[in-house]
Amino acid sequence: SLSERLDSVFKKIKGRGRLDEASIEEGLREVRLALLEADVNYKVVKDFTRKVKEKALGKEVLKSLTPGQQVVKIVHEELIELLGGKNVGLELKGKKPYIIMLVGLQGSGKTTSAAKLALFLRRKKFSPLLVPADVYRPAAIEQLQKLASEINIPSFGSSSNMKPVDIALQAREEAIEKGYDILILDTAGRLHIDEVLMNELVEIKQACSPQEILFVADAMTGQDAVNVASRFDELLDITGVILTKMEGDARGGAALSIKSVTGKPIKFIGVGEKLKDLEVFHPDRIASRILGMGDILTLIEKAQSSIDEKEALKLEEKLKTAKFDLEDFRTQMKRIKKLGSIEGLLKLIPGMGKLRDQLKNVKIPEKEMAKLEAIINSMTKEERKNPKIINASRKERIAKGSGTTVQDVNNLLKNFEQMRKMMQQMMGQMGGGRRLGMKN
Ligand code: GDP
Ligand code: MG
Question: Exposed, middle or buried: residue 114 (CB in 10 Å: 0-12, 13-18, 19+)?
Answer without folding.
Answer: buried
